Amino acid sequence: MAAIGRVRVCGVFLVLALAVIAVLAPVAARAQNLIRDAEIEYALRQLTRPLAAEAGISASAIRVMVIDDNTMNAFVLDGQTVMIHSGLLLRLDNAQQAQAVIAHELAHIANGHITRRLANLRGANSAAAMGLLMSMAVAASGNAEAGVGLAMGTSSSAQRLFFAHTRAEESSADQAGARYMARAGVDPQAMVDVLDLFRGQEALSVTRQDPYVRTHPLTADRLRAAKGFAAAYGGKAAMDTAAEYWFARAKGKLGAFLQSPRYTLRKAARDGSDVGVMRRAIAHHRTPSTEKALAEMARLEAQRPNDAFVQELKGQILLESRRFGPAVNAYARAVALAPNEPLILAGHGRALLALDTANGNRQALAALEKARARDPFDPRMLRDLSVAYARAGNNGMASLATAERYAIGGRMDTAAVHARRAAGLLPRGAPGWLRAQDVLAAAENAGRRKK
Fold it and tell me: Which Gene Ontology terms describe the biological processes this protein takes part in (predicted)?
């Protein structure tokens, strides 16, 4: 996937320190994928905004991101990041159910449950710190093989420390989340509907449970209380057609990329909506059948002529079909329509790099630098930025971008190699040199902890 970018999360380290990042021994047996897609993340922001306002949290400070995992789970990664498994998102039926999940997790943030638990962790202000958070996401998956253990305990103790909530916290988050929903005009009954998805799982063996049940204790009392909250707060909500539309786009695009193309084509065969056309275009692209995909994209453009995400998807299909010039044009149109979307800027830079011309390389570097300024935690963008710097003859910054890319993935030893190279090539005290020092400090603490 490209527009839906699968960012590999190595899950090799956990960081535990007061003012520095100390990375523990690598024990993860498998990796996870973090899905990055401008359209999906925009849609989730639309669902989150009214809930965040009612929770007293700045909507611009909240990220809702998707992990490529077919189990059902959602959790708070830090004080500003909510993670949702793709398996849960694809199982939900409507926007209100998605908002119920988000409202519950926002309540954990607003009530201070995560702040207390992560009080001794450095915030995600650097690539190395983001590597910490992504490693923690693997531990939160609930899969023992993917868990990352603390030095003083097991992977299950790491989960309990960082992600698992007490029954009191769950009850508190349910009540607060239902209140946010009601105030935002979202029916709290959707929270009951979501909990019903997990009913009976606590009676299953641990290996058969979805991780949500282990990180969010689900009991009959909790479900009964949620029904009471719905009765107390509900009854005044009306369907938000805009929210339902963006949920349909997010779920439709996610499913088209993750599910079988044959399944998607069968389900969307008679769907004339823009979401249905988009799903068919993606399915044909994955088959691959470029001409059929582009024919569907032409229909989609006619329906949504000024939609930046439509142009981005068109750019992706053209780029992955090696039609570089038209891809650049599509991405340029997307940037003109949404100039502040970092993932769209990154896609434009990637297409310009594919031209491999002097002018294209210069424009690519400018686009990728803008993308990094808005979202420094996209490893695919950092990979492309490294190439752009190298083509411009700036080997120091190329090494720095590579160092940060490895740091985000938790590969601190490799990150340190590139950070030392960057520090040796960049002017001492310059912003790039300081970023290299940040990666080196994290790597040094990792090595010290392993000893």
Answer: proteolysis involved in protein catabolic process
